[in-house]
Structures
1.
Amino acid sequence: MPFDSQQFSEDVYALVRLVPRGRVCTYGAVAKALLEPSRSRLVGWALNRCPDDVPAHRIVNRNGVLTGRQFFGGDTMRVLLKEEGVAVKEHKVVDFKNVFWSPIEDMSCED
DNA sequence: TGAGTGACTGTAA
DNA sequence: CTTACAGCCACTC
């Protein structure tokens, strides 16, 4: 079946909603969890148009940088993470490796 | 129709 | 962790 970017976006939203509070995830981890590791860019593209019920502020790039903060406006993204217990320095997650959450880990019993 | 753009990543050093 | 290079693909003009 052909690749459906619309469906891909829906899958991205569904998976991002699974990210636990106080944790963050990366575009690549999401893409990999959706079995599309090379389409990490589309994850960011999808989150740009995500509905309000998607915790997109929990998604950062591989360096732990809040690259999407400019789309939230002001320091909204940093504040949201802080409220969840994620320390952020300027525009980077503090001890990123420690707060990183892999969706694949949570899928161990899926399917 | 084609060049430019972007909330990116893996690998190597 | 950072920096540099190459690959990636939907969207815009």
2.
Amino acid sequence: MTSVLVCDDSPLAREALRRAVATVPGVERVTTAANGEEVLRRWGADRSDLILMDVRMPGLGGVETVRRLLSADPGARIIMLTVAEDLDGVALAVAAGARGYLHKDASRAELRATVTQALADPTWRLAPRRLRSTEMGAAPTLTAREIQVLEGMSHGRSNAEIGRELFLSEDTVKTHARRLFKKLGASDRAHAVALGFRWGLVR
Amino acid sequence: MTSVLVCDDSPLAREALRRAVATVPGVERVTTAANGEEVLRRWGADRSDLILMDVRMPGLGGVETVRRLLSADPGARIIMLTVAEDLDGVALAVAAGARGYLHKDASRAELRATVTQALADPTWRLAPRRLRSTEMGAAPTLTAREIQVLEGMSHGRSNAEIGRELFLSEDTVKTHARRLFKKLGASDRAHAVALGFRWGLVR
DNA sequence: ACGACGGTCACCCGAAAGAGTTACGGGGGC
DNA sequence: GCCCCCGTAACTCTTTCGGGTGACCGTCGT
């Protein structure tokens, strides 16, 4: 029974990853965890053949989780997931024994190819490479204006206030708002702000 | 020149901590960092006498940062900051060499006392203790109902929908909403959701 | 050259939201 | 005993939001 464990603190990314991994031929079970602690806690009772784990997670970070997991089970196969910003974290994780890494904006095909290969060859290690594309669990791409409007919302400003701040008419702000709602799948500004935080688009 | 470094990924908590620490007699400089990487990067050029660091941070977690910091500089004095939920992280950090820890809802007075003592005595270690109170940079205390309402907002639900979900009238939901706005200092629901994320009240 | 997309703005309209106020019962603290 | 906070609920009133639609212009890619 081939099983894969997906670990990411972002619920949206986690779901997207789970769905993507589930389509890989041969994978019969995909479990998920929200943080490193959860992975370690469950590893004793429930070992997977492969772990996909985010580098940046609250609590026990991905790097430390890799260390502790490998000291408990040197045979564990782990692939780190990362965004462009924390390449050093990836380097640490690979140094600690992770088999490779994937950028979060890797295409679904690249993700599947990597998972397939890692499952097929127990000794496989990823030759470092950079990936692009906009598939998988990548955050929706907002334009600069849309992010400015979203940030305004996250600071509690009304459309009119955002407009004054950005030297735009309120109607224009509303247009940007409507467009970013659609991209994010948000039903209102509160939802949009929440999704912005969950996707890491705003802080 | 006595200097203290405050490290927390939450901007609000960071500012609150910075202000609190700055009032400690003898402290002449307070610098801040948003994550472990930043602390490590700057440690070579700019060493502080004491570090206050959050346990849970994105990227390099507090525990791992303690390890790497102490392996680079065994004399570094570090106090971990934590919320009630990650006591294991604290245990790890203390095991790794942190001098002690403070709950984030410790009173400002307790924070100052701890910092004063840690600065005065280079060998000081905190005897484990639990603290309470609502001073310092603690997140506003929302009631269970208020958090439920805030979570509903973060999922894009209207007041009426939240009411149906929680078996409350829409008017009651609006009352909870108004009260949580006031506690958080939010001007509308989008702002409240943003503050909820920044304070770590919702995910 | 054409179309898709992004940035700008406008108008209409119904549905929400938010502020203000009142109220009543229960619990905890002083 | 009293007061403050919480949970519940209702009422009114004004503002804002969000959807729908249409429009003009510039850019980029094909």
